[in-house]
């Protein structure tokens, strides 16, 4: 049976969902990818939310039943008439007719909040940067692109915290991969291109065999690339960590482990034909390059392509 492969990217506001999605979409080929942001399923516009006193994170502030229906339709290759929410104006626009491509990426706040929604995905990612990093990212993004002042963003973050705790963060447990970009102790105010990444790899999907990293003598606690075992929300997991100062050679080494598993898809690791890999918008709008981000995007893409071997 041939059907679209569905990737979920869930995380709190400004956790880095769009940034992560961009590189993945490029490797899969933009013409093959349908991108959906579940912010479009908000029930109330910006003014109404302020009047009612509800945050965009609350399930009652979103048409989760319609989102769930649309996910099921997309999974079976059927079209949807999707609502459209504009972050520029804070209001709704006319709906859009969307027919799914080979790959569908669904990113947003509450994508894993119901059992039926969770069942729609082939790969589930949860983004969990430390809260001070997320706050810095949200202030930067909302002041540059959504017309807020820094004070308004800080007040909004405070107002949203109870809903983040109750509705957003518990969704971490349903993900196959938890992604956390974090600063080193030496540069704890760094929030841009030199962040490390910690990837929690749950056994809910089969990951590439990264034990070769430890076999080759890398992977110990001093190395820029580390593999270990841990628990996440009480469950055993593998953890892969890559430092922001890891060399291109070290990162390429890990990429080869994935690409050698799928020799017919060698070009997914080719940086020249995939320039969006690892690209981040910096503080003044400049473009920064992060190897940990590029590697994270490739691991997720690996899983999308693996799924095509079963369903396409
Ligand atoms: N891995 C990263 N390293 C450094 N900066 C990042 C990273 N990911 C995101 N950022 C910064 O954080 C800002 C917000 O990220 P992004 O727009 O991807 O978040 P989002 O989760 O899609 O937000 P929302 O759901 O609110 O639309 C970006 O403009 C970027 O500057
Ligand atoms: O948490 C968010 C995810 O992007 C937004 O704040 C939410 O979607 C409402 O959007 P806006 O602040 O532009 O009205």
From TrEMBL:
<dbReference type="InterPro" id="IPR006083">
    <property type="entry name" value="PRK/URK"/>
</dbReference>
<keyword id="KW-0808">Transferase</keyword>
<dbReference type="InterPro" id="IPR027417">
    <property type="entry name" value="P-loop_NTPase"/>
</dbReference>
<comment type="similarity">
    <text>Belongs to the phosphoribulokinase family.</text>
</comment>
<keyword id="KW-0113">Calvin cycle</keyword>
<dbReference type="InterPro" id="IPR006082">
    <property type="entry name" value="PRK"/>
</dbReference>
<keyword id="KW-0418">Kinase</keyword>
<keyword id="KW-0547">Nucleotide-binding</keyword>
<protein>
    <recommendedName>
        <fullName>Phosphoribulokinase</fullName>
        <ecNumber>2.7.1.19</ecNumber>
    </recommendedName>
</protein>
<comment type="pathway">
    <text>Carbohydrate biosynthesis; Calvin cycle.</text>
</comment>
<dbReference type="Pfam" id="PF00485">
    <property type="entry name" value="PRK"/>
</dbReference>
<keyword id="KW-0067">ATP-binding</keyword>
<keyword id="KW-0602">Photosynthesis</keyword>
<feature type="domain" description="Phosphoribulokinase/uridine kinase">
    <location>
        <begin position="6"/>
        <end position="185"/>
    </location>
</feature>
